[in-house]
Amino acid sequence: xxxxxxxxxxxxxxxxxxxxxxxxxxxxxxxxxxxxxxxxxxxxxxxxxxxxxxxxxxxxxxxxxxxxxxxxxxxxxxxxxxxxxxxxxxxxxxxxxxxxxxxxxxxxxxxxxxxxxxxxxxxxxxxxxxxxxxxxxxxxxxxxxxxxxxxxxxxxxxxxxxxxxxxxxxxxxxxxxxxxxxxxxxxxxxxxxxxxxxxxxxxxxxxxxxxxxxxxxxxxxxxxxxxxxxxxxxxxxxxxxxxxxxxxxxxxxxxxxxxxxxxxxxxxxxxxxxxxxxxxxxxxxxxxxxxxxxxxxxxxxxxxxxxxxxxxxxxxxxxxxxxxxxxx
Length: 328
Ligand code: CO
Ligand code: CO
Ligand code: CO
Fold this sequence. Notes:
It is built from eleven helices and 13 strands. The protein has helices spanning 5-10, 56-73, 94-110, 161-169, 179-186, 190-199, 211-223, 238-245, 251-258, 272-279, 296-305, and strands at 21-23, 32-37, 40-49, 77-87, 114-122, 127-136, 152-155, 203-206, 226-229, 264-266, 287-291, 312-318, 324-327. Strand 1 and strand 2 (32-37) form a beta hairpin. Helix 2 (56-73) packs parallel to helix 3, helix 4 (161-169) crosses helix 8 and helix 8 (238-245) crosses helix 10 (272-279). The mean pLDDT is 95.
């Protein structure tokens, strides 16, 4: 999940002033980055939330893929992970918790990182996630503040996970009905990260709690540019669209849509259901990548060859109005 309330509170705290802190809280980036040596930076992030799937093993995998994504979004490789767990151990059998933890373990292993511990508290509402630690070369760190005019924008996963998990919670579908989105949520962003490092890109963030609109706006503000998104180019899960058309969407989509209204301009031609999708909070969403125009096609075909089949060119970066988002 993004910083939100936390960032607003911490805004009033003294800023850590240390040249080794390469990325802090200023532009709501995905993770903190700290330079250990000239050629080595540490990346740290934490993410956890209540179950959004019925199957605890799948939930554990998705929660872990989501937490690890913040390392990939910075251009890094995860090395260590710690479980963050709240669970009603007194009321619910520990086999459920075991399945969640097994899911997390499997994804951390797939990422090539080590699961080295964690912390559990007794809580009525279960929550699970990871504190993840990664590394990168300091010069290769990708932030959300270096998108440049004339860049093209690529999104690597379809939108709609918030809408579909809402439909699941309301009992309108079963997990088996949302297979395509499940696979997308289970997929680590590691292949997309490898492709962007191969090609060389300017900026990146992953799409999570603030939806495409929120995270794209953060990139626009962080970079001092305008992000222009082409509605028809955005990859969207068709089942999620059909639920949005029926008025099924999470409360977070409504909050995201109301957020910073003045800085986001959405064409009146964009239908309300599509607006719900653009504002839909994503869990284990894709990467939003700002890539120099001349490398955009190479990155897109690299992504498709690597199996990131939903990746699409969704727009471009303009010089002005700075710090804004246009959806046309
Ligand atoms: Co996060
Ligand atoms: Co993130
Ligand atoms: Co402890």
